[in-house]
Amino acid sequence: LFIIITIIILVVNPQIVNGISFLTKFNRVTFNNKSIILSLSIQFVMLAKLFIYFIIVEKLYIKYSKSAKLRYLLFTYLFVILNIGIFIGINRKLILMNAISSLYIINKLYPKHKKMTSVIIFSVGIFIFLQLTIFRFYGSRNSFGNIAGTLQVYLSGPYNMALAIETSELYKNDISLFNIVYDLGRPFYGLGQFFKKFDAYTSTDYFNARLSIGGYPRSDQIMPISGQGLLHFGYLFSPLYLVLSIILGLYTEKKLRGTSSIEKKYILCLICIMFGQAMGVNFVIITNVVTHQGLLFYIIYIVNAKISTRKYSNSNFVIDEKYYIY
Questions:
Q1: Could you tell me if 156 and 279 are in contact, meaning their C-beta atoms sit under 8 angstroms apart?
Q2: Can you tell me the distance from the alpha carbon of 4 to that of 14, in angstroms, rounded to the nearest whole number?
Q3: Long-range pairs, 178-184, Cβ under 8 A, ≥24
Q4: What is the pLDDT of residues 71-105, one digit of tens each?
Q5: Taking phi first (over 0 means left), then psi (-120 to 50 degrees means alpha), and beta for anything else, what does residue 88 get?
Q6: Backbone angles phi, psi at 29, to 5 degrees
Q7: In angstroms, rounded to a whole number, what is the distance separating the alpha carbons of residues 29 and 189?
Q8: How far apart are CA 203 and CA 164, in angstroms?
Q9: Is the Cβ–Cβ distance between 100 and 92 less than 8 Å?
Q10: Which of 301, 286, 307, 311 is nearest to 50 (CA)?
Q11: Is the dihedral of CA 241, 244, 250, 254 positive or negative?
């Protein structure tokens, strides 16, 4: 039912595909330039893609478990490639996150073929990642500067941390309890629309304001997670968001190890990866990605789980014979 509704949305509003990239055909359009309805529609399409992927992978595994024919594994690889290769915008993190999550569940389903699975999925993921990197840097007059800036972003370099300290010094008197709540609520998928009506600033806005002093407006760097904590809580409690990310990451990993559902393992693996990147991002980004990837998924998944019956299993998974409402 969900997939049918999504197909109808896609037929009625075909411009949705303008926000989706496919393998090496990249599209720079992101949610930031779109209305909430269009953004939600794109998310529906990506979620439907994920559910179709789960359905096909599970059906192929059931057939493989009965016949042990290699062609079912090869078909599985084909749909893994499509799952990794269809994504939103030009976010390289999503490529790697989907590749690692796919690798995790396929290796669990087919433990005897781990080597071949790893080579194929890593090759596809790295190929798309490198192509996307070239696409983003191509035509730049200062490619070396872009690469250096990118390293600053993802490694929370000393330049970014110094900017975060200066941001705290400049704007610490502007920070109130509401600013902290707003900072956590604004990137929360769905809930962010409620906070959008308030005239307030996130920590990212303050960081970008400092970054832009003396030049044109910039937003090409990420405020480190410790810098965000410094802005909100001062030097003593500046690691608070980082510690919280570690705790939530460990909790998610525990849930990941405890579930036998392919769907939940995939999403929980994505969330674990996001928490694992805490040192290279901040809690605003973590909140956005975790809620964006998990919220709608769990709503649909929980409803579907109410009408599924258990049938196939191996040592790692229980495959349900579902009356799919996806």
A1: yes
A2: 15
A3: 179/232, 180/232, 183/228, 183/232, 183/283, 183/284, 184/283, 184/284, 184/287
A4: 899 999 999 998 888 877 666 778 888 899 999 99
A5: beta
A6: -65, 130
A7: 18
A8: 10
A9: no
A10: 301
A11: negative
What's residue 32's pLDDT? 47
Which pLDDT score, from 0 to 100, does residue 279 have?
Answer: 82
- As a whole number of angstroms, the distance between CA 214 and CA 296 comes to 42
Q: What is the pLDDT of residue 76?
A: 92
- For residue 46, which of 80, 21, 78, 27 has the smallest C-alpha distance? 21
Residue type, 210: R
Which segments in the chain show pLDDT lower than 50?
30-33, 139, 144, 309-312, 315-316, 319-326
pLDDT of residue 156: 59
How remote is the C-alpha of 107 from its chain's centroid?
21
Q: Are 265 and 104 in contact (CB under 8 A)?
A: yes
| Residue given tokens 């956005």 in the structure block | 288
d(CA 211, CA 223): 10
Q: Which residues of 262-277 are buried (b: 16+ CB within 10 A; e: fewer)?
A: bbbbbbbbbbbbbbbb
> pLDDT at position 325, please?
37
**CA-CA distance, 12 to 34, in Å (whole number)?**
17
Predicted TM-score of the model (pTM): 0.78
Q: Which amino acid is at 29?
A: V
Q: How far apart are CA 134 and CA 136, in angstroms?
A: 5
**What pLDDT does residue 140 have?**
52
